[in-house]
Amino acid sequence: MTAFDLTGKLAVVTGARRGIGRAMARALAGAGADIIGVSASLEESDSEVEKDVLAAGRTFEAIRTDFADPEAVRAMGADLAGRERPVDILVNNAGTIRRAPAAEHDDADWELVLQVNLNAQFALTRAVGASMVARGQGKVIFTASLLSFQGGITVPGYTAAKHGIAGLTKALANEWAPRGVNVNALAPGYIATDNTQALQDDPVRSKAILDRIPAGRWGDADDLAGATVFLASDAAAYVHGVVLPVDGGWLGR
């Protein structure tokens, strides 16, 4: 058994149906964790992420929850926190994005993005994290962003939410590190997923982005696998309040 071994652990991964969340769930299962996958549109059975997890020899449970619905998120948090088998690892990856120039960015889009990307993250973490604190152990991993550090273009709500996630990561770490709970975040760079499809399809923006990435390519969702397992494992026992970029060198440019 190594410090990276997650055998016997239970991980909740939100936004698990596709993209980065699916890759994170697959990575955690590969390291030995059983998975509860959460998404607003997750199939009750036979989803692609479920197939990934079962192929790794681990168990999978699907929960369909709309993160735009505060009551549904609170109910899910209470359910998970009250179960006989405790959650060892909480991966807060669910998110959404709305693109519009700031002067035209309407209230509905702003409020939706803040609810899904920040408010729901806190509500779920408050519930599950409280049970971790009571037990004196647990791992919380948020999905932050390069826009936790930068301003972006035409995504003011998303940028505000992701700056909030970086701050929340540090605030919770300050309180929970002495109680045996690690709270950290990953900041993916430009990853080729549905969320970045508009940028990939824009020849001018896509070239500008690619020209700035020292690694010379867009990231793949599986590029987050190793960092996810690291932060979820005992190898990161003394890592608290970190926002870890996985960005091909973008922020160092």
UniProtKB/TrEMBL annotation:
Entry's Gene Ontology molecular function annotations: oxidoreductase activity, acting on the CH-OH group of donors, NAD or NADP as acceptor
SUPFAM superfamilies named in the record: NAD(P)-binding Rossmann-fold domains
Keywords: Oxidoreductase
Keyword Transcription regulation: no
InterPro entries reported in the protein's UniProt record: NAD(P)-bd_dom_sf (IPR036291), Sc_DH/Rdtase_CS (IPR020904), SDR_fam (IPR002347)
Keyword Oxidoreductase (UniProt): yes
Pfam families linked to this entry: adh_short_C2
Source species, domain of life: Bacteria
PANTHER family, per database record: 2-DEHYDRO-3-DEOXY-D-GLUCONATE 5-DEHYDROGENASE, SHORT-CHAIN DEHYDROGENASES/REDUCTASES FAMILY MEMBER
Family: Belongs to the short-chain dehydrogenases/reductases (SDR) family.
UniProt protein name: SDR family oxidoreductase
Organism encoding this protein: Streptomyces cyaneochromogenes
